[in-house]
């Protein structure tokens, strides 16, 4: 019973430690939609017999989705807010 409780507590702490902002989640969802749309287009091209074009489309959309996810990750998360401008933390 102690192991189950410990694992539940550990899972809950990881959940709070990895909170993303709503903006970051929206950007990551948009990247996922771009990737899914690219895969669907590549599948259609492959079914039509254009495998080289399908590979090209799939690679291009994956690169675009990766760039979108990287941009989303560059935004500060809710768990680590940026310090206020002009504030100092020196002690006297």
Automatic annotation (TrEMBL):
Record PROSITE patterns: PROKAR_LIPOPROTEIN
Identification of the protein by name: Entericidin EcnAB
Source species taxonomy: Bacteria, Pseudomonadati, Bacteroidota, Cytophagia, Cytophagales
Record key words, sorted: Signal
Signal peptide start-end: 1-17
Region (Disordered): 20-92
Residue stretches of biased makeup (Low complexity): 20-32, 78-92
Membrane spanning residue stretches: none
């Amino acid at each position: 019973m102690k192991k189950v409780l410990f694992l539940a507590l550990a899972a809950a702490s990881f959940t709070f430690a990895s909170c993303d902002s709503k903006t970051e989640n929206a950007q990551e969802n948009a990247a996922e939609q771009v990737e899914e749309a690219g895969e669907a287009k590549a599948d259609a091209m492959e079914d039509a017999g254009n495998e080289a074009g399908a590979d090209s489309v799939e690679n291009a959309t994956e690169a675009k989705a990766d760039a979108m996810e990287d941009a989303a990750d560059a935004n500060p998360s809710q768990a680590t807010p940026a310090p206020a401008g002009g504030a100092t933390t020196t002690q006297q």
